[in-house]
Amino acid sequence: MTDPVWQASVVVPPQAIPVFDEALNDAPGLEVLASSSFEVQDGTFWKIEVLFAPPVDRTMLETRIALAAASMDMAAPRLNLVALPDRDWVTHALRALPPVHAGRFYIHGAHDRGTAPAGTLALEIEAGRAFGNGKHETTYGCLLALDRLGKVRKFQKPLDLGCGAGALALAMAKLWRVPVVASDIDPWAVAVTRDNSRCNHLHPWVKPVLADGFGHPALSAGAPYDLIVANILARPLQHLAPAIAAHLAPGGHVVLSGLLAKQDAQVRAIYRDQGLFLVRRRQFGDWLTLELAA
Ligand SMILES: C[S@@+](CC[C@H](N)C(=O)[O-])C[C@H]1O[C@@H](n2cnc3c(N)ncnc32)[C@H](O)[C@@H]1O
User: Fold this and answer.
1) Is the peptide bond before 236 cis (omega within 30 degrees of 0)?
2) Ligand 1 pocket by C-beta < 6 Å: which residues?
3) Contact residues for 75 (Cβ-Cβ < 8 A; gap 6+)
4) Residue 49 and residue 35 in contact, taking contact as beta carbons nearer than 8 Å
5) Which CATH topology does 5-95 take?
6) What topology is assigned to 129-293 in CATH?
Protein backbone atom coordinates (compact mmCIF):
# COMPACT_ATOMS: atom_id res chain seq x y z
CA MET A 1 0.00 0.00 0.00
CA THR A 2 1.49 3.35 -1.05
CA ASP A 3 0.53 6.74 0.39
CA PRO A 4 -2.71 8.10 -0.96
CA VAL A 5 -2.57 10.93 -3.44
CA TRP A 6 -4.89 13.89 -2.92
CA GLN A 7 -7.21 15.00 -5.68
CA ALA A 8 -8.45 18.59 -5.42
CA SER A 9 -11.10 19.86 -7.79
CA VAL A 10 -13.30 22.89 -8.33
CA VAL A 11 -16.00 23.56 -10.91
CA VAL A 12 -15.85 27.05 -12.39
CA PRO A 13 -17.11 29.03 -15.38
CA PRO A 14 -14.72 29.01 -18.37
CA GLN A 15 -13.59 32.62 -17.97
CA ALA A 16 -12.41 31.85 -14.42
CA ILE A 17 -10.21 28.87 -15.39
CA PRO A 18 -6.85 30.69 -15.45
CA VAL A 19 -7.39 32.26 -12.02
CA PHE A 20 -8.45 29.04 -10.27
CA ASP A 21 -5.90 27.00 -12.19
CA GLU A 22 -3.23 29.24 -10.71
CA ALA A 23 -4.82 29.13 -7.24
CA LEU A 24 -4.53 25.34 -7.15
CA ASN A 25 -1.39 24.73 -9.19
CA ASP A 26 0.75 27.41 -7.58
CA ALA A 27 -0.13 26.66 -3.95
CA PRO A 28 3.15 27.14 -2.05
CA GLY A 29 4.71 24.01 -0.59
CA LEU A 30 2.43 21.56 -2.41
CA GLU A 31 3.79 19.12 -4.97
CA VAL A 32 1.59 18.89 -8.07
CA LEU A 33 1.64 15.45 -9.73
CA ALA A 34 -0.80 16.17 -12.54
CA SER A 35 -3.26 18.84 -13.48
CA SER A 36 -6.07 18.96 -15.99
CA SER A 37 -9.21 20.88 -16.83
CA PHE A 38 -12.15 19.65 -18.82
CA GLU A 39 -15.71 20.57 -19.72
CA VAL A 40 -18.63 19.57 -17.57
CA GLN A 41 -22.30 20.43 -18.09
CA ASP A 42 -21.93 20.86 -21.86
CA GLY A 43 -19.16 23.38 -21.53
CA THR A 44 -21.11 25.76 -19.28
CA PHE A 45 -18.64 24.91 -16.55
CA TRP A 46 -15.16 23.45 -16.39
CA LYS A 47 -13.69 21.18 -13.77
CA ILE A 48 -10.10 21.86 -12.74
CA GLU A 49 -8.55 18.79 -11.16
CA VAL A 50 -5.14 18.75 -9.52
CA LEU A 51 -3.40 15.74 -7.99
CA PHE A 52 -1.12 16.52 -5.05
CA ALA A 53 1.47 14.42 -3.30
CA PRO A 54 0.74 14.26 0.45
CA PRO A 55 0.53 16.12 2.75
CA VAL A 56 -2.09 18.63 1.61
CA ASP A 57 -3.15 21.72 3.54
CA ARG A 58 -6.92 22.00 2.99
CA THR A 59 -7.26 25.35 4.78
CA MET A 60 -4.57 26.91 2.64
CA LEU A 61 -6.22 25.65 -0.56
CA GLU A 62 -9.62 26.92 0.58
CA THR A 63 -8.12 30.33 1.34
CA ARG A 64 -6.50 30.49 -2.10
CA ILE A 65 -9.81 29.58 -3.72
CA ALA A 66 -11.65 32.22 -1.70
CA LEU A 67 -9.09 34.86 -2.77
CA ALA A 68 -9.31 33.76 -6.41
CA ALA A 69 -13.11 34.00 -6.24
CA ALA A 70 -12.92 37.46 -4.68
CA SER A 71 -10.61 38.63 -7.47
CA MET A 72 -13.25 37.46 -9.99
CA ASP A 73 -16.07 39.01 -7.98
CA MET A 74 -17.84 35.67 -7.68
CA ALA A 75 -18.86 33.23 -4.95
CA ALA A 76 -16.15 30.76 -4.00
CA PRO A 77 -16.69 27.34 -5.58
CA ARG A 78 -16.61 24.33 -3.25
CA LEU A 79 -13.25 22.63 -2.93
CA ASN A 80 -13.64 18.90 -3.38
CA LEU A 81 -10.66 17.16 -1.79
CA VAL A 82 -10.44 13.37 -1.79
CA ALA A 83 -7.70 10.83 -1.16
CA LEU A 84 -7.18 8.40 -4.05
CA PRO A 85 -5.99 5.09 -2.65
CA ASP A 86 -2.99 3.16 -3.93
CA ARG A 87 -2.06 4.18 -7.45
CA ASP A 88 -5.57 4.64 -8.83
CA TRP A 89 -4.61 8.22 -9.50
CA VAL A 90 -2.34 7.19 -12.38
CA THR A 91 -5.24 5.55 -14.20
CA HIS A 92 -7.40 8.47 -13.28
CA ALA A 93 -4.97 11.11 -14.55
CA LEU A 94 -4.39 9.31 -17.84
CA ARG A 95 -8.09 8.82 -18.47
CA ALA A 96 -8.63 12.55 -18.04
CA LEU A 97 -6.01 13.33 -20.66
CA PRO A 98 -6.80 11.75 -24.00
CA PRO A 99 -4.83 12.98 -27.03
CA VAL A 100 -5.99 16.18 -28.70
CA HIS A 101 -6.48 16.41 -32.48
CA ALA A 102 -6.26 19.96 -33.79
CA GLY A 103 -6.01 20.09 -37.57
CA ARG A 104 -2.93 18.05 -38.42
CA PHE A 105 -1.59 18.29 -34.87
CA TYR A 106 -1.90 15.34 -32.49
CA ILE A 107 -0.93 16.32 -28.95
CA HIS A 108 -0.53 13.45 -26.52
CA GLY A 109 1.07 12.49 -23.22
CA ALA A 110 3.80 9.89 -22.78
CA HIS A 111 1.12 7.27 -22.04
CA ASP A 112 -0.16 7.66 -25.64
CA ARG A 113 3.27 7.61 -27.29
CA GLY A 114 3.21 5.76 -30.60
CA THR A 115 -0.53 6.16 -31.13
CA ALA A 116 -0.36 9.11 -33.58
CA PRO A 117 -2.37 8.35 -36.72
CA ALA A 118 -0.44 8.43 -40.01
CA GLY A 119 -0.17 11.89 -41.53
CA THR A 120 -0.52 13.76 -38.23
CA LEU A 121 2.10 16.02 -36.66
CA ALA A 122 2.58 14.40 -33.25
CA LEU A 123 3.76 16.38 -30.24
CA GLU A 124 4.31 14.85 -26.83
CA ILE A 125 3.37 17.25 -24.07
CA GLU A 126 3.02 15.86 -20.57
CA ALA A 127 0.32 17.36 -18.41
CA GLY A 128 2.06 19.40 -15.79
CA ARG A 129 2.11 22.74 -14.17
CA ALA A 130 2.61 24.93 -17.22
CA PHE A 131 -0.48 25.79 -19.22
CA GLY A 132 -1.17 24.13 -22.53
CA ASN A 133 -1.51 20.51 -23.55
CA GLY A 134 -3.72 21.56 -26.47
CA LYS A 135 -6.97 20.74 -24.72
CA HIS A 136 -7.93 24.23 -23.68
CA GLU A 137 -9.98 26.14 -26.28
CA THR A 138 -7.45 28.97 -26.44
CA THR A 139 -4.55 26.66 -27.34
CA TYR A 140 -6.80 24.61 -29.59
CA GLY A 141 -7.84 27.71 -31.55
CA CYS A 142 -4.18 28.70 -32.02
CA LEU A 143 -3.26 25.21 -33.22
CA LEU A 144 -6.02 25.37 -35.83
CA ALA A 145 -4.78 28.80 -36.93
CA LEU A 146 -1.22 27.47 -37.23
CA ASP A 147 -2.44 24.43 -39.16
CA ARG A 148 -4.15 26.74 -41.66
CA LEU A 149 -1.23 29.15 -41.91
CA GLY A 150 1.11 26.20 -42.45
CA LYS A 151 -0.80 25.32 -45.59
CA VAL A 152 -0.44 28.75 -47.16
CA ARG A 153 2.95 30.05 -46.11
CA LYS A 154 6.29 29.01 -44.68
CA PHE A 155 7.05 31.43 -41.88
CA GLN A 156 10.75 32.04 -41.21
CA LYS A 157 10.76 33.95 -37.91
CA PRO A 158 7.91 33.00 -35.58
CA LEU A 159 7.48 34.04 -31.95
CA ASP A 160 5.36 32.29 -29.31
CA LEU A 161 4.72 35.04 -26.73
CA GLY A 162 3.53 33.46 -23.45
CA CYS A 163 4.57 29.95 -24.40
CA GLY A 164 3.31 28.06 -21.30
CA ALA A 165 4.27 24.41 -21.89
CA GLY A 166 5.46 25.34 -25.38
CA ALA A 167 2.73 23.64 -27.43
CA LEU A 168 2.53 26.45 -29.98
CA ALA A 169 6.29 26.96 -30.27
CA LEU A 170 6.71 23.23 -30.79
CA ALA A 171 3.90 23.19 -33.34
CA MET A 172 5.60 26.01 -35.32
CA ALA A 173 9.00 24.30 -35.14
CA LYS A 174 7.42 21.06 -36.31
CA LEU A 175 5.64 22.77 -39.21
CA TRP A 176 8.47 24.91 -40.55
CA ARG A 177 11.76 23.65 -39.04
CA VAL A 178 12.89 27.22 -38.44
CA PRO A 179 14.14 28.91 -35.24
CA VAL A 180 11.21 29.77 -32.95
CA VAL A 181 11.50 32.15 -30.00
CA ALA A 182 9.32 30.94 -27.10
CA SER A 183 9.01 33.44 -24.26
CA ASP A 184 7.17 33.46 -20.97
CA ILE A 185 7.08 35.61 -17.86
CA ASP A 186 7.05 32.43 -15.74
CA PRO A 187 10.42 30.68 -15.24
CA TRP A 188 8.67 27.35 -14.75
CA ALA A 189 6.96 27.65 -18.15
CA VAL A 190 10.33 28.41 -19.75
CA ALA A 191 11.82 25.30 -18.13
CA VAL A 192 8.88 23.12 -19.18
CA THR A 193 9.11 24.44 -22.76
CA ARG A 194 12.81 23.59 -22.78
CA ASP A 195 12.08 20.02 -21.58
CA ASN A 196 9.25 19.57 -24.06
CA SER A 197 11.46 20.81 -26.92
CA ARG A 198 14.09 18.21 -26.02
CA CYS A 199 11.58 15.42 -25.61
CA ASN A 200 10.19 16.17 -29.08
CA HIS A 201 13.68 16.55 -30.64
CA LEU A 202 12.80 20.13 -31.54
CA HIS A 203 15.37 21.77 -29.24
CA PRO A 204 17.61 22.81 -32.16
CA TRP A 205 14.76 25.07 -33.27
CA VAL A 206 13.03 26.27 -30.11
CA LYS A 207 14.69 29.04 -28.08
CA PRO A 208 12.99 29.48 -24.67
CA VAL A 209 13.42 32.95 -23.13
CA LEU A 210 12.29 34.32 -19.76
CA ALA A 211 10.72 37.71 -20.48
CA ASP A 212 7.83 39.96 -19.58
CA GLY A 213 6.43 40.91 -22.98
CA PHE A 214 9.35 42.08 -25.12
CA GLY A 215 11.46 42.99 -22.10
CA HIS A 216 14.50 40.88 -22.92
CA PRO A 217 17.20 41.64 -25.52
CA ALA A 218 16.66 38.19 -27.11
CA LEU A 219 13.14 39.26 -28.07
CA SER A 220 14.36 42.39 -29.89
CA ALA A 221 17.28 40.50 -31.41
CA GLY A 222 14.86 38.04 -33.03
CA ALA A 223 12.70 40.82 -34.54
CA PRO A 224 11.12 41.50 -36.91
CA TYR A 225 8.95 38.39 -36.62
CA ASP A 226 6.81 37.32 -39.55
CA LEU A 227 4.42 35.51 -37.19
CA ILE A 228 3.61 36.35 -33.56
CA VAL A 229 1.32 34.04 -31.61
CA ALA A 230 0.16 35.28 -28.23
CA ASN A 231 -2.27 33.25 -26.17
CA ILE A 232 -2.52 35.49 -23.12
CA LEU A 233 -5.54 37.13 -21.51
CA ALA A 234 -7.32 40.15 -23.07
CA ARG A 235 -5.77 42.75 -20.81
CA PRO A 236 -2.11 41.87 -21.50
CA LEU A 237 -2.98 41.43 -25.18
CA GLN A 238 -4.25 45.00 -25.29
CA HIS A 239 -1.30 46.29 -23.33
CA LEU A 240 1.12 44.47 -25.68
CA ALA A 241 -0.53 45.63 -28.94
CA PRO A 242 1.97 48.45 -29.76
CA ALA A 243 4.97 46.26 -28.97
CA ILE A 244 3.58 43.34 -30.98
CA ALA A 245 3.01 45.65 -33.98
CA ALA A 246 6.47 47.19 -33.57
CA HIS A 247 8.16 43.78 -33.62
CA LEU A 248 6.20 42.48 -36.60
CA ALA A 249 7.67 42.35 -40.12
CA PRO A 250 5.77 44.05 -42.97
CA GLY A 251 3.13 41.59 -44.21
CA GLY A 252 3.41 39.63 -40.95
CA HIS A 253 0.65 37.70 -39.21
CA VAL A 254 -0.52 37.76 -35.60
CA VAL A 255 -2.57 35.09 -33.81
CA LEU A 256 -4.22 36.28 -30.61
CA SER A 257 -5.99 34.01 -28.15
CA GLY A 258 -7.08 34.01 -24.53
CA LEU A 259 -9.73 36.69 -25.01
CA LEU A 260 -13.43 36.17 -24.47
CA ALA A 261 -16.04 36.69 -27.17
CA LYS A 262 -17.33 39.78 -25.35
CA GLN A 263 -13.83 41.33 -25.50
CA ASP A 264 -13.59 40.88 -29.29
CA ALA A 265 -14.50 44.40 -30.44
CA GLN A 266 -12.31 46.14 -27.87
CA VAL A 267 -9.21 44.03 -28.56
CA ARG A 268 -9.67 44.23 -32.32
CA ALA A 269 -10.04 48.02 -32.23
CA ILE A 270 -6.74 48.37 -30.39
CA TYR A 271 -4.96 46.17 -32.93
CA ARG A 272 -6.66 47.98 -35.82
CA ASP A 273 -5.09 51.20 -34.49
CA GLN A 274 -1.75 49.41 -34.90
CA GLY A 275 -2.50 48.58 -38.55
CA LEU A 276 -3.49 44.96 -37.92
CA PHE A 277 -6.71 43.68 -39.46
CA LEU A 278 -8.84 40.59 -38.98
CA VAL A 279 -8.26 37.66 -41.32
CA ARG A 280 -10.08 34.89 -39.43
CA ARG A 281 -11.94 34.47 -36.17
CA ARG A 282 -12.53 31.18 -34.36
CA GLN A 283 -14.73 30.73 -31.32
CA PHE A 284 -14.78 27.73 -29.00
CA GLY A 285 -17.05 28.10 -26.02
CA ASP A 286 -16.61 31.68 -24.86
CA TRP A 287 -13.03 31.85 -26.09
CA LEU A 288 -11.86 33.56 -29.26
CA THR A 289 -8.80 33.12 -31.42
CA LEU A 290 -8.14 35.98 -33.85
CA GLU A 291 -5.89 35.83 -36.87
CA LEU A 292 -4.74 39.30 -37.89
CA ALA A 293 -2.47 40.55 -40.64
CA ALA A 294 -0.63 43.78 -41.31
C1 LIG B 1 -2.94 30.90 -21.48
S2 LIG B 1 -1.25 30.49 -21.29
C3 LIG B 1 -0.85 29.99 -22.95
C4 LIG B 1 0.22 28.95 -23.02
C5 LIG B 1 0.50 28.41 -24.44
N6 LIG B 1 0.95 29.46 -25.35
C7 LIG B 1 -0.71 27.72 -25.01
O8 LIG B 1 -1.34 28.27 -25.91
O9 LIG B 1 -1.05 26.62 -24.56
C10 LIG B 1 -0.56 32.11 -21.15
C11 LIG B 1 0.91 32.14 -20.82
O12 LIG B 1 1.34 33.49 -20.97
C13 LIG B 1 2.26 33.81 -19.94
N14 LIG B 1 2.26 35.28 -19.79
C15 LIG B 1 1.33 36.05 -19.18
N16 LIG B 1 1.68 37.35 -19.27
C17 LIG B 1 2.86 37.40 -19.95
C18 LIG B 1 3.72 38.45 -20.36
N19 LIG B 1 3.47 39.74 -20.08
N20 LIG B 1 4.85 38.14 -21.05
C21 LIG B 1 5.13 36.85 -21.34
N22 LIG B 1 4.35 35.80 -20.97
C23 LIG B 1 3.22 36.08 -20.28
C24 LIG B 1 1.76 33.02 -18.75
O25 LIG B 1 2.80 32.80 -17.81
C26 LIG B 1 1.27 31.72 -19.41
O27 LIG B 1 2.27 30.72 -19.43
Assistant:
1) no
2) 131-132, 138-139, 142, 160-164, 167-168, 183-186, 189, 212-213, 231-232, 236, 258
3) 69
4) yes
5) Alpha-Beta Plaits (3.30.70)
6) Rossmann fold (3.40.50)
Q: Running along the chain, 294 residues long, what does each successive block of 10 average in pLDDT?
A: 77 88 90 74 78 90 96 95 68 65 90 88 78 77 95 96 95 97 93 93 97 95 97 93 98 95 95 96 91 94
Ligand 1, residue 130: give the atom nearest the CA: 27
Q: How far is the CA of 232 from the centre of ligand 1 (A)?
A: 5
Supply the pTM of this predicted model: 0.73
The secondary structure of the chain, three-state, reads CCCCEEEEEEEECHHHHHHHHHHHHCCCCCCEEEEEEEEEHHHCEEEEEEEECCCCCHHHHHHHHHHHHHHCCCCCCCCEEEEECCCHHHHHHHHCCCCEEECCEEEECHHHCCCCCCCCEEEECCCCCCCCCCCCHHHHHHHHHHHHHHHHCCCCCEEEECCCCCHHHHHHHHHHCCCEEEEECCHHHHHHHHHHHHHCCCCCCEEEEECCCCCCHHHHHCCCEEEEEEECCHHHHHHHHHHHHHCEEEEEEEEEEEEEHHHHHHHHHHHHCCCCEEEEEEEECCEEEEEEEC
> Is the CB of residue 93 less than 8 Å from the CB of residue 36?
yes
The preferred substitution site among 186, 194, 216 for testing ligand 1, maximizing ligand atoms within 8 Å of CB, is 186
Residue 179, preceding peptide bond in cis (omega within 30° of 0) = no
